[in-house]
Design brief:
The chain is of the alpha+beta class and 690 residues long. Among the domains are: 3-156, Neurolysin, domain 3 (Orthogonal Bundle); 190-253, no CATH class; 265-357 and 549-622, Neurolysin, domain 3 (Orthogonal Bundle), CATH 1.10.1370.10. It is 53% helix and 6% strand. It is built from 25 helices and seven strands. It has helices at residues 35-54, 62-71, 74-87, 93-114, 117-128, 137-152, 159-189, 205-217, 242-253, 265-281, 287-292, 300-329, 338-352, 368-384, 467-484, 500-511, 517-523, 535-544, 550-567, 579-593, 611-614, 624-641, 647-658, 666-674, 681-686, and strands at 192-194, 223-225, 386-390, 402-408, 411-421, 431-436, 447-454. A five-stranded mixed beta sheet has the order 3-4-5-7-6. Strand 4 and strand 5 form a beta hairpin. The protein is globular, with a radius of gyration of 25 Å.
Length: 690
């Protein structure tokens, strides 16, 4: 039933101003039927506002053109903040259909604004005279970004070129939306069924209970092991039964490539073709060149060179690592065995070093709530003066979502929402979202969401974090801090609205505190006894996580190389004979040419389930994690040299980077903070590749 027939206010609840703290949407008042009518109103209002700016008879100025554009579209921003925060972590068939409709509507809307010739003329006039306008650094960046966005959307093309751009962008919007939905559906459908708990030996009691609950929810007996988004599944690293490992590994690596209704291979060919065609229309040789022109990396070739340099070192380390694992196993390894024996090797090496502890025990000292309050939040308090008060009186968009009010030095600065548990309606992975962007111009404070996919425990049982999950929790909260500490004039520059290959940097920095002595001692208490973790256990855990495994590095680099390989293709070079075979053949060839082909170490994401690049915003930019890690590794050394968890260092980092968003050149700001441009050597040491 829609809002118009529920006997309520004539204002659509999606668009109604919220009287809740910080403008938190009243999710309980909104139904799925409200969204499309709300968008009809919001899109029309925004176009009307833009038309008034474009047709103004006043000479163009920053305030009456760019400042006005920044202030326009508030209804649309509100609708986007609500709907797209629901569609990822709590989808359903209705929302999936709405997303498909909106993919086209929003693309057409963006094209109408970008290709508005009167508006473009005003922006171009300001751009041509930008040196004479006396703009602030932030205003100059707004002007330059708006001008580039318009040109890159086709505003400078002739009528025929603009028509092609509209057609291409509309089709791409549909395809990328469908890709994400196909992946979610096939991931859910590919959950692996086991009849007997004996087959799940190696999993914890809570993991086995979750598998039983999943089977019951699906109307089946036995146990159902859900898949995670990456190729490597955490369950595969634990299961003692090699047949069980192989079944889960096979289910993971064949997603969306089995010739069923969820197969994405034809989509991939069409997406790559259209992206290349769009780039050529705009004068770029490839989609990779088109994307990287807006990033901090100089060229696709520079990215490929970095991946090749790291890849060569990683493959050398990988051969030695695989030889050691094979010796441990006492037999040749299958690809499904590698992460299991990596974990076994870690424990065996600790034992050989006469370590008295089992690092697997560390999970018992990492209970979610304790880690949150006494680890994640405590570190943010020490560094940035933040404190968090849980607001049980405020509701999120799902019963599992929790809400905290965030204070800085006693002053309320926004809300933080935590959505930690996996469910079938949630896409895989972990991420941060903005429901409301910070903006001094608009007087808005941030509402930030962190989404994870932890296994929900049985009632009364603790949620215990693996080391990887612990790191992910700190990582995603680094994104949250970036949004919460934003202090910029314009919403388009707030928080994480920075170049894609810079956005992971603050979140990677926050990972360093997960095992820092000044942090881990606060939360690492046994969930049952309350006893603190011993120094020996903490030392062993730090040693195990001191460098990335070669396996992990190769997984990541192979995925990044695949992304660049797909998107450096010209339209004529895109394979199009038979998508079912061409996609897999191209993948194998690309990995071989990058020197990252390993029969035992597949990419972190194979092409058919690489949502980052075919369903998300990381096309030609998956390299950004390693690019950002160069800055991160340098910053970790900067923090450690200054004494670690020191408020003055946190204040300097917040002032130089976190609060600035994209209102200043982020790479230059980082170099000024540490005193020199970032170097690659600290990264090589961290990754064990020096």
């Amino acid at each position: 039933m829609s809002w118009a027939t529920r006997g309520r206010s004539s204002v659509n609840p999606v668009l109604a101003a919220s009287d809740l703290p910080y403008g938190l949407p009243d999710f309980s008042s909104i139904s799925d039927d409200d969204f499309l009518p709300a968008y009809d109103v919001a899109l029309a209002n925004h176009l009307s506002e833009v038309d008034a700016i474009a047709t103004s008879t006043e000479p163009p100025s920053f305030d009456n053109t760019l400042g006005a554009l920044e202030a326009a579209g508030r209804d649309l921003a509100r609708a986007n903040g609500i709907f797209f925060n629901l569609e990822g972590p709590d989808s359903n068939p209705a929302r999936a259909k709405i997303a498909q409709v909106l993919a086209v509507k929003l693309t057409e809307h963006g094209n109408a604004i970008a290709m508005n010739q009167q508006l473009f003329a005003r922006i171009a006039n300001l751009y041509d005279h930008r040196a004479d306008l006396g703009l602030s650094v932030a205003q100059m960046r707004v002007l330059e970004q708006r001008y580039r966005d318009a040109v890159r959307a086709g505003a400078a093309l002739d009528e025929a070129g603009q028509a092609q751009m509209r057609e291409i962008s509309g089709r791409l919007a549909t395809l990328t939306t469908d890709f994400g939905q196909h992946l979610l559906d096939d991931t859910n459908a590919s959950a692996v069924h086991f009849a007997d708990a004996v087959e799940l030996d190696g999993l914890s009691s809570s993991e086995i209970a979750a598998a039983a609950r999943a089977a019951t929810d699906a109307g089946r007996d036995g146990y159902l092991v859900a898949l995670e988004l990456p190729t490597s599944q955490s369950t595969v690293a634990k299961l003692t039964d090699p047949i069980a490992r192989q079944r889960i590994f096979d289910a993971s690596t064949t997603r969306c490539a089995r010739g069923n209704e969820f197969d994405t291979r034809a989509m991939i060919i069409e997406i790559v073709t259209l992206r290349s065609r769009r780039a050529n229309l705009l004068g770029y040789d490839s989609h990779a060149e088109y994307v990287i022109a807006e990033e901090t990396a100089p060229t696709p070739a520079a990215v490929a060179d970095l991946l090749a340099e790291l890849g060569a070192a990683a493959m050398t380390a990988g051969k030695a690592e695989l030889a050691r694992l094979t010796e441990r196993a006492g037999h040749p390894l299958a690809a499904a065995d590698v992460t299991f024996y990596l974990a076994a090797d870690q424990k065996a090496r600790a034992a050989e070093a006469d370590s008295p502890v089992d690092i697997d025990e560390f999970e018992n000292f990492c209970e979610l709530d304790t880690v949150l309050h006494d680890g994640v939040f405590a570190a943010a308090g020490r560094l940035y003066g933040l404190s968090f008060t849980e607001r049980d009186d405020l509701a999120g968009y799902h019963p599992d979502v929790r809400v905290w009010e965030v204070f800085r030095n006693g002053t309320g600065i926004g809300l933080f929402l935590g959505d930690f548990y996996a469910r079938p309606s949630k896409r895989g992975g972990a991420w941060m979202n903005n429901i409301v962007d910070q903006s001094n111009q608009l007087g808005t404070t941030p509402i930030i969401v962190n989404v994870l996919n932890l296994t929900k425990p049985e009632p009364g049982e603790p949620c215990l974090l693996s080391l990887d999950q612990l790191t992910t929790l700190f990582h995603e909260f680094g994104h949250a801090i970036h949004g919460l500490l934003s202090n910029v004039e314009y919403a388009s520059q707030s928080g994480t609205s920075v170049p894609r290959d810079f956005v992971e940097f603050p979140s990677q920095v926050n990972e360093m505190w997960a095992l820092h002595p000044d942090v881990v001692g606060g939360y690492a208490r046994h969930h049952a006894t309350g006893e603190p973790a011993t120094p020996e256990l903490l030392d062993a855990v730090r040693a195990s996580g001191g460098t990335e495994s070669a396996h992990s590095t190769i997984e990541y680099l192979a995925a990044a190389a695949l992304d660049i390989a797909w998107h450096r293709l010209s339209e004529d070079d895109v394979p199009d004979r038979d998508p079912a075979s061409d996609v897999l053949e191209f993948e194998a060839q690309a990995l071989a040419e990058a020197g990252l082909a390993s029969p035992l170490i597949p990419p972190r994401y194979r092409s058919t389930y690489f949502n980052h690049i075919f369903g998300g915003g990381y096309s030609s930019a998956y390299y950004s994690y390693i690019w950002s890690e160069i800055l991160d590794a340098e910053t970790e050394q900067w923090f450690l040299a200054g004494g670690g968890l020191q408020p003055e260092l946190g204040a300097a980092f917040a002032d130089a980077v976190l609060s600035r968003g994209d209102s200043a050149d982020p790479v230059a700001a980082h170099a000024n903070m540490i005193g020199h441009p970032a170097r690659i050597e600290p990264l090589l040491v961290r990754r064990g590749l020096a």
